[in-house]
Amino acid sequence: MSERLSVAVLGTGIMGAPMARNLCSAGLDVRVWNRTRAKAEPLAEAGARVADSPRDAVEGADVLLTMLHDGPATAETVRAAAPGLRSGVIWLQCTTAGLEGLPPLAELGREYGLVFVDAPVLGTRAPAEAGQLLVLAAGPESARTGAGPVLEAIGSRTVWVGEEPGAASRLKLVCNSWVLAVTHGTAEALALADGLGVDPQSFLDAIEGGSLDMGYLRIKADTIRSGQYTPSFAVSTAEKDARLIVSAGEEAGVRLDVAEAGAERFRRAAELGHGDEDMAASYFASFPDGGGPGRG
């Protein structure tokens, strides 16, 4: 590896952009690429080099980090980058690809001689901006030292759950099933309060400090009550993850009624025009016309 660790970040959306910015702040040599170049260009001010293609981004890189929409998009992008990749590059695959989407990526890693690390992250925009993501990682012991500076820059903690790809992705789906369930629970409780003419603050006051209270509930409740749905995690992406969770359950012989219903709520919210808004916009799926007092 070069004296100054070089990192190529492919995908600079809601999560990838702040991750790349933190890599720059850590003093690493950062190259970035995004399908929509305009989303990557602001990173030049942080010190990143904006590439015109995936191949240009990965030329000479020591570490490749992918944070794209899904498995197929990641595979397509890495294939485009392949001519610029060299054998032995550590690939931190952070995209939530699901149980079906991950094996083709691991196979690509083997095909191109990369050191593949299954490394999805827990957290949304704010933790990503603060470098406080929780990284769930599964990959060879040999990758841990080389990937260390990258993992330290993007997260507060890395939990290594094994050496074989898939272990981290399975844990990520379990964690996401809980995150999405809490999001929908918050959205439905506030929608019901609005429908019944109950002040949502009365609900929040009633559970305050008790075992039913939690910080994430209050974050999403604040989003709904303010009507400010700037995405920390978009509805369309949440629907994708929900369907990956349902698919994983089916493969394992586990029925996930709540996750399946949640995917449908996200679909309705997107159909009503909220696909690019924060996933708390699940709230709008409770109303036939997408209205409701929480509309911003």
Helix-strand blueprint:
Elements: E1 6-10, H1 16-25, E2 29-33, E3 49-50, H2 54-58, E4 63-66, H3 71-81, E5 90-93, H4 98-111, E6 115-118, E7 121-122, H5 125-130, E8 133-138, H6 143-154, E9 155-162, H7 167-196, H8 200-207, H9 215-226, H10 235-252, H11 257-274
Parallel strand pairs: 1-2, 1-4, 2-3, 4-5, 5-6, 8-9
Antiparallel strand pairs: 7-8
Helix pairs in contact: 3-4, 7-9, 7-10, 7-11, 10-11
3D architecture notes:
The mean pLDDT is 96. The chain is of the alpha/beta class and 296 residues long. The longest helix is centred in the middle third of the chain and has 30 residues, at 167-196. The strands form two sheets. The protein has a six-stranded parallel sheet with strand order 3-2-1-4-5-6, with helices on both faces. The chain has a three-stranded mixed sheet with strand order 7-8-9. The chain has eleven helices and nine strands. The chain is 49% helix and 14% strand. Helix 1 (16-25) links the parallel strand 1 and strand 2.
Q: Tell me the number of helical segments per DSSP (H or I, 4 or more residues long).
A: 11
Give the strand content. Answer: 5-15%
Outline the low-pLDDT stretches: none
Instruction: Characterize the overall form.
Output: globular
Distance between the termini: 50 Å
Report the mean per-residue pLDDT as an integer: 96
Order of SSEs: EHEEHEHEHEEHEHEHHHHH
Rg is: 20 Å
Percent helix, as a range, is 40-55%
Quantity of strands, as a count: 9
* Classification by helices and strands: alpha/beta
The largest sheet is:
6 strands, parallel
What is the topology, as strand order, of the major beta sheet?
3-2-1-4-5-6
